[in-house]
Write a structure and sequence with these properties.
The chain is mostly helical. Helix content is about 55%, strand content about 5%. It contains 14 helices and 4 strands. The chain has a 4-stranded antiparallel beta sheet. Helix 5 packs parallel to helix 11 and helix 9 (about 190-205) runs antiparallel to helix 10 (about 220-235). The longest helix has 22 residues, at about 115-135. The mean pLDDT is about 90.
Length: about 375
């Protein structure tokens, strides 16, 4: 019986780099220093940095990726890691789940000496991505926003009112978590691999050009992840080593990818840093103003979709503003929204405006947002 050769670590690294670079190019305005949507660094003082530094880091990172594609090397990988982290510090909107995942995978390649250690670290990262992605969906917001509205009604044309049809949506997150845990087993890991590959295929069909045709930056990720599943789990065993968990970097990795995401359940850790994807329940910031000049400025982003629940006829949806400007979902943490409100007020001095956070669901909430 012939055994398929193992996919090498170098090929896995190159696959990650191609996927990573492709996603960044698809949402390239996210990395630029001159754009319409606010840049939100981790410290306000970083706003004083010149705009071209953002572009320099972006193109410098792409250059490092090209060099690593040509010849994988830990030195260039370290430079790429530093450049990428610096770019992320300059704008919290860049803290995308896939970006966070690839940063940790690259860091494992840089700081772990043995190939087996890198492979085991990547296996841990993937299990965490799937498990916490599924865990975040175990909520009514996923059933309302994703399962009921986007999946059944918008895509399949099914208007679901039956409670059992709605509850059937919980099968998806439970299955995702279950498949993730199966990857840790020896006997049933292939079932986990098959199940998760099927999930990625479903997402590609659902969000692809023949369906919703949205969020195109996640297409490369959903194509690359099945490749990782086959290479890291189908072809290999999960072989935890006691010495592996004594490495300081591994302990940091476990903290960031396996422990801190639990805090997201209580709102104490970022959604994007907890691998929350397609879960619904995203808090949305809206700007209400009657200033005609401002309304004309944001006309291409506006709609009256939420005018029935908001106290203005033409609310400015910050989420749509981001999607059309940076070509990806923005960071929706309250501290980021507070920084956006601050910059917006500075840009439009003297303009009267109110800010609201809307959260959809079977019982939506609308709260006036007035950060100090």
């Amino acid at each position: 019986m012939m055994v398929a050769p193992l996919i090498s670590l170098q090929l896995l690294l190159r696959t990650m780099l191609v996927c990573w670079a492709t996603i960044q190019l698809l949402c390239y305005p996210l990395w630029h220093g001159l754009r319409d949507y606010p840049i939100i660094p981790i410290w306000d003082v970083l706003l004083k940095l010149p705009w071209f530094l953002h572009d320099t880091l972006f193109y410098g990172g792409l250059g490092c990726m090209l060099l690593l594609l040509w010849k994988p090397n830990k030195r260039w990988a370290m430079i790429l890691l530093v450049v990428t982290i610096c770019g992320a510090l300059l704008d919290q909107n860049r803290w995308q789940p896939w970006h966070y995942q690839f940063i940790w995978m690259l860091a494992a390649y840089v700081f772990l000496q043995k190939e087996k250690q890198v492979i085991l670290a990547w296996q841990i990262i993937l299990v965490s991505v799937y498990f916490f992605s599924g865990l975040a969906k175990l909520q009514s917001a996923f059933i309302h926003d994703i399962w009921k509205n986007l999946f059944l009604q918008s895509w399949l044309g099914i208007t679901a009112k039956n409670q059992w049809i709605l509850r059937l949506g919980y099968v998806m997150p439970i299955a995702e978590m279950g498949f993730a845990l199966l990857l840790l087993t020896g006997s049933f890991k292939k079932i986990g691999v098959y199940g998760l590959i099927l999930m990625h295929l479903l997402i590609l069909i659902w969000l692809g050009p023949f369906a919703r045709n949205t969020i195109i930056e996640v297409w490369p990720w959903n194509i690359a992840m099945p490749f990782f599943l086959v290479a890291l789990f189908y072809q290999r065993k999960l072989e935890p080593m006691l010495a592996f968990f004594k490495i300081k970097f591994v302990r940091l990795l476990l903290l960031a990818c396996c422990i801190l995401p639990w805090l997201n359940l209580g709102g104490y850790w970022d959604r994007n840093l907890s691998f929350v994807m397609y879960s619904g329940g995203v808090p949305l910031l809206y700007i209400c103003t009657n200033n005609n000049t401002v309304l004309m400025q944001y006309a291409s982003y506006m709609s009256n979709h939420k005018s029935a629940v908001l106290p203005c006829k033409f609310p400015i949806p910050v989420y749509q503003w981001a999607l059309k400007t940076i070509h990806t979902s923005p960071n929706t943490e309250k501290r980021v929204y507070a920084a956006i409100v601050k910059q917006w007020k500075q840009l439009h001095l003297g303009v009267e405006a109110s800010f609201y956070i809307y959260k959809s669901g079977f019982k939506y909430t609308l709260v006036k947002f007035d950060p100090q």
